[in-house]
Automatic annotation (TrEMBL):
The keyword Transmembrane applies. Residues 35-166 form the DUF6644 domain. This is DUF6644 domain-containing protein. InterPro entries: DUF6644 (IPR046586). It comes from Erythrobacter westpacificensis.
Length: 172
């Protein structure tokens, strides 16, 4: 039996009522499988960022240089982020209209954007001088600020992500 979806009235409904969106929404396994992969990818991102941030704060991993830790964690961070972005986009297509009115989703996207800006500033400004403080027991203020901001922002992303799951049926 074919599903009936009304004529889309905005871009979010067009995405949601697309063949991809309806396939994910109507499948018994697609959404939970994508959600599981999304969570695993996000845990990978958060875990690798946490390790690096704790190193920048001087709270853990001090026997490794910042450059070595970055070299070891960054590929995992990016792989996890790409996988989380792909699965998150696919999840979004199945309930685009609902997500776009859910304040936790909007906050999550805003916090992700801020985390990206924080990372970009760190890598293009603070990290340029990493060879000067790479193995120092005391990190520069800019590195500590970036690490603290990163932890706060990513904890907010995780919190909002969980809250989305608990509030999907509330906001329409």
């Amino acid at each position: 039996m074919a599903s009936y979806y009304p004529e889309p009235t905005n871009i979010w409904e067009s995405i949601e009522y697309s063949s991809l969106g309806t396939s994910i929404a109507e499948s018994l396994w697609a959404f939970p499988t994508l959600e599981t992969i999304h969570v695993i990818a996000l845990v990978t991102v958060f875990g690798t960022i946490l390790v690096m941030d704790l190193r920048l704060l001087g709270l853990a991993g001090n026997k490794w240089t910042v450059l070595q830790m970055s070299k070891d964690t960054l590929p995992w961070t990016w792989a996890g982020f790409v996988l989380a972005a792909i699965t998150g986009t696919l999840l979004f297509t199945s309930k685009a209209s609902t997500y776009m009115v859910n304040p936790y989703f909007l906050w999550k996207m805003g916090l992700l954007a801020l985390a990206g800006l924080n990372m970009a500033y760190f890598h293009f400004v603070t990290y340029k001088t990493v060879t000067e403080w790479d193995s120092s027991p005391v990190m520069p203020g800019g590195a500590k600020f970036a690490a603290t901001a990163s932890l706060v922002l990513w904890l907010g992303v995780v919190f909002c992500g969980r809250a989305i799951g608990f509030t999907l049926g509330i906001y329409y």
